[in-house]
Amino acid sequence: MKSNITMKDIADKLGVSSVTVSKALNDKEGVSESLKLQIKKIAGEMGYRYNSAAKSIKEGLSYNVGVMIPQRFTGMNSSFYLRVYQQISLHLDHYGYFGILNILSNEDEDQLNFPRVYSENKVDGIIILGQVSKEYIQTVQNMNMPKLFLDFYDEHAEVDSIIQDNFYGAYELTNYLIRLGHRDIAYVGNIYSTSSIQDRFLGYYKSLLEHGLAFQERLLLNDRDERGRYIDIQLPERMPTAFVCNCDQVAYNLYERLTEAGYSVPADCSVVGFDNDVYATLVSPHLTTVEVDIDQMARTAVKFMMEKLESPGRRNGRVLVQGKIVFRDSVKRLEANN
Amino acid sequence: MKSNITMKDIADKLGVSSVTVSKALNDKEGVSESLKLQIKKIAGEMGYRYNSAAKSIKEGLSYNVGVMIPQRFTGMNSSFYLRVYQQISLHLDHYGYFGILNILSNEDEDQLNFPRVYSENKVDGIIILGQVSKEYIQTVQNMNMPKLFLDFYDEHAEVDSIIQDNFYGAYELTNYLIRLGHRDIAYVGNIYSTSSIQDRFLGYYKSLLEHGLAFQERLLLNDRDERGRYIDIQLPERMPTAFVCNCDQVAYNLYERLTEAGYSVPADCSVVGFDNDVYATLVSPHLTTVEVDIDQMARTAVKFMMEKLESPGRRNGRVLVQGKIVFRDSVKRLEANN
DNA sequence: CTGAAAGCGCTTACAG
DNA sequence: CTGAAAGCGCTTACAG
To answer: How far apart are CA B50 and CA B43, in angstroms?
Structure first.
């Protein structure tokens, strides 16, 4: 399968030099218009394909970017990162780059091995998509090429990161509920479980504070045990008018719980979620929720990476990408508030 | 970011030639053991990284395989192909290869453009993942490198393909129902909608035939209109004891319909699905269904590709990958049949 | 065991 | 406008 037609072959066919062919095919100065046209025509006929390896070796650039996803985020039910990767791939294309997916195996993560894309110089930069261990972060820092953390950050690492704005999303969502007249609003989630649940809680909390609403313990409902397994949600004795759930799946669970207890959404109480995944449209009525702007995350990551490739010293720090509220039918405007 | 350490740098540091360094680093014959060790040590210290572009240019091999997914299969809710890609990527790794994802845009498909991975010689072979247009299949055939169709095939194209065995999966599932004593079994799906719905129907049909059970029109329930939108499933007047649904999502829809009508699964009637996606475990009781063996598909695709890379003439034809039944609690053994 | 020479395909000065 | 020369980093014969 190495029927490789080279510039030399085209040059020989036309009795010119390969330098001239190179100039013609790259639309560079120094070839007469007619020769250029002729060369391009012959190239097409001969099925010539550019050899990017030769370019790579000259420029020391592979025109690839590695996207590394830790293995544990790649299970059956977690296609989120794959979708992010897909968008990254699409945006890289605009810059003439390609994305190489690299699943970081648990072993490689434990043994602090460099990924093969790095040790074989297959990529010009690397995007780490999804939290890796503290120790591996150090390994990443030892890699001598532009790098970027996506969807997580490390306070000590000198690595730029792009994360979704969990805090602001929950803040906006809660503001929205308050604007519609809700005053007694619960938060559903184990705030000691993950940092995103905690950050979302904080956004909810800030909204309450800003509106002079007192937070009370009874308004914090647990959704999972310390190992992350969902538990039955205990509804408070005096029911709030609205629930902010830390994610759509928990909202789904809450719906079931409410139905059992004889409450109807949104007539008796309103519910909002987070993520806009399958669960958001699996419940009836469909859930008002926050959608992570995957495209924006990918676009930003690629932009930053390209900038770093241009000027390696470039820093962007910790950048937040805001989600957008998807308004559906799980929230009711309270009469009280006109 | 081109602080590239080369073999020459290592050689200079030790006062040897780069040829010797090359041999040492590649564990080739012709270097004394002690020198080899020393070279490897220095290489490590200097942070040397192999330049795979140089290898590529020598061998005419990129050690990359392209995976092309038509844009229309990459929406929000279709992560199936991304998961396949992920597995391909994993298996390629075993062979020292990398996978480059290439989303085929609708425009490129319409205009029959070669993908950039091809025209820039970025890959040694290409896997087309998901049905492309008749016209584009021709374009694929014009590509002068090993290629493979995955999850679809074309009767006229001289291209090997790997597809899931829809027919056999439904056949087995129906056999299972019959073995448990079911005799009156319905199929849910619009058999004119897609070829996989049709093939699954045929598997169901064959099972009936083999067991001497008569198929009747009343046993074929429609699930979607000609544009693919789900419609309300009409339950037959005389209820069957079991339903074979063409996919899990439709089984999910059927559950709702059955619940409305006052039937309970599996007490009153049994239900099976296909795909083993989220919907399978969203219903209660969880659904017995067929899981596509993504790993097997990916593994086979990579194996075939590697063989083609070895010997380009190699043909494998149309290969079917069988799914596996996932037994859960949506099926009841009928008393009648001990 | 060790290394000088040539070459993979292309591009970048530079000379004509 | 056109092209000979050198070089990118590595490997493959081949000579010593």
So the answer is: 10
